[in-house]
Write a structure and sequence with these properties.
This protein has helices at 10-19, 21-30, 33-45, 54-59, 65-77; strands spanning 81-84, 87-90. By secondary structure, the chain is mainly alpha-helical. The chain has one domain (7-90): Winged helix-like DNA-binding domain superfamily/Winged helix DNA-binding domain (Arc Repressor Mutant, subunit A). Strand 1 (81-84) and strand 2 (87-90) form a beta hairpin.
């Protein structure tokens, strides 16, 4: 699993941090590396039908399905990712 500051997350990290530094800073402190990776993957595939699909998990190298499930649930609990009509979306439009 990659960290928030890994090479694969660098383009997303750079653009988000330049556009909205205060908001972005909060996310880097709030999320674990796994949660951040799942958030980035959801944002890239938005609107996402099935975050538990083998294709989604493998395409983004997210690791075990149980890890992704736990990260998605936490992101939903904190209203960072929402589910709307069976599709997963990043709730914060700044990201």
């Amino acid at each position: 699993m990659s960290s928030i500051f890994s090479e694969e997350n660098r383009p997303f990290y750079r653009s988000a941090s330049l556009m909205h530094p205060p908001v972005f800073y909060v996310y880097t402190r709030l999320l674990t590396g796994t949660q951040w990776s799942v958030l980035v993957a959801v944002a890239k595939d938005e609107p996402l039908k099935n975050p538990m699909s083998r294709e989604f998990i493998q395409n983004h190298q997210l690791g075990a399905a149980s890890t992704v499930h736990t990260a998605i649930k936490m992101l939903q609990k904190n209203e960072i990712v929402i589910e709307d009509q069976g599709r997963y979306l990043v709730h914060d439009v700044l990201l």
